[in-house]
Write a structure and sequence with these properties.
The complex is a heterodimer. In chain A, β4 and β5 form a beta hairpin. Chain A contains no helices and 11 strands. In chain A, about 0% of the residues lie in helices and about 55% in strands. Chain A is an all-beta fold. By secondary structure, chain B is mainly beta. Chain B is about 0% helix and about 60% strand. In chain B, a hairpin with a 4-residue loop joins β7 and β8. The radius of gyration of chain B is 14 Å and the shape is globular. The chains are: A mainly beta, B mainly beta. The interface between A and B is medium-sized, with 23 and 22 residues.
Chain lengths: ~110, ~110
Amino acid sequence: NAGVTQTPKFRVLKTGQSMTLLCAQDMNHEYMYWYRQDPGMGLRLIHYSVGEGTTAKGEVPDGYNVSRLKKQNFLLGLESAAPSQTSVYFCASSSPREYEQYFGPGTRLTVT
Amino acid sequence: KNQVEQSPQSLIILEGKNCTLQCNYTVSPFSNLRWYKQDTGRGPVSLTIMTFSENTKSNGRYTATLDADTKQSSLHITASQLSDSASYICVVSGFPTGNQFYFGTGTSLTVIP
């Protein structure tokens, strides 16, 4: 039981490049989330999903897209990376029957 | 506006001492409040979860309290250890789905020998 895993752990992009962050969970959770964490600002919700095939915008969705084609996976895409997207990205999952979110180890992204 | 505020922003204590972290929130309606510990370079890990009817919840040397009337919570750490050095994040959830999560900016705790 690996919990929530994220790929990759680190990445450096040039402005304008694209990439996809992968999140996988093996707890059969319905809900999945993508957050970004910046110094002094706490975790901010980018997008979330309440089930396979469904996604919704969070607090800071601009510049990101997501897909939830399989229940266990939640992908976060950056179509044209900008320096403002330099951050640490966390994926989380939860079940509607319990209150706790389980977080992945994070992906540190730097856009130059 | 639903908000979660934590204090202090940072704290340095000597190993073996106790400390208390504060969390005030304006989230309404309220579903539950959680404290997370986040080690440097890692994802947050849950310490305690409290619903409206719970006043106190302990997890080893960590004890969380909740006053739903004043919308305040505290996390008390007893006999601190070097491994307690981390960021502690307060997260409040609102109704109706329980998936509206509001995050505090965290308290950075440093325990020194």
